[in-house]
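Support request from a user on the community tier.

User writes: "When I paste my structure tokens into the form, the page sometimes reloads and wipes my input. The last time it worked, I copied everything first. Here is what I submitted, just in case something in the input itself triggers the reload:"
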């Protein structure tokens, strides 16, 4: 199987951003799963420690991950250099919400169906004014879901 290049992942994210415009989304939040793998090439197992990426309508992805996983994650991340680590005594949701704010997100945010409720809930509690919607249609439109 040929190696997928950074350019391919950038094209896929650009296609997602076009679909986001169509659906009125300002960002999509992904946890590890098929959409993250397709759009970014990052294959990551889920654990109780949140690992996520914010794909904004404008700007680079924002990666949020546990501090002790930083070295391994940096080897796997092909697109985006905005990597925000959190330590055991910190909230990953604060990093995600700050990433949304830093990318100018004030409206609709798509949540990947692979995201667990506690991750969504942690984000929602810190940013209750954002409008959260399922990302299923926008991901499907971008080819990230079947």
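"...and here is what came back when it finally went through:"
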């Amino acid at each position: 199987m040929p190696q997928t290049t950074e350019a391919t992942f950038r094209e896929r994210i650009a296609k997602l951003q076009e679909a986001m415009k169509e659906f009125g989304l300002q960002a999509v939040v992904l946890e590890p799963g098929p959409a993250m793998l397709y759009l970014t090439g990052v294959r990551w197992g889920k654990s109780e420690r949140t690992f996520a990426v914010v794909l904004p309508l404008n700007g680079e992805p924002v990666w949020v991950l546990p501090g002790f996983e930083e070295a391994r994650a940096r080897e796997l991340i092909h697109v985006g250099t905005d990597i925000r680590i959190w330590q055991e005594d910190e909230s990953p949701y604060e990093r995600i919400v700050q990433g949304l704010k830093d990318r100018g997100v004030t409206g609709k945010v798509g949540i990947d169906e692979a995201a667990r409720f506690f991750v969504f809930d942690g984000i929602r509690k810190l940013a209750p004014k954002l409008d959260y919607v399922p990302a299923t249609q926008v991901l499907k439109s971008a080819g990230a879901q079947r």
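Agent notes: The reload is a front-end session timeout and is unrelated to the input. The mean pLDDT is 95. The helical segments are 6-23, 34-40, 70-76, 92-102, 117-126, 136-141. Escalated to web team.
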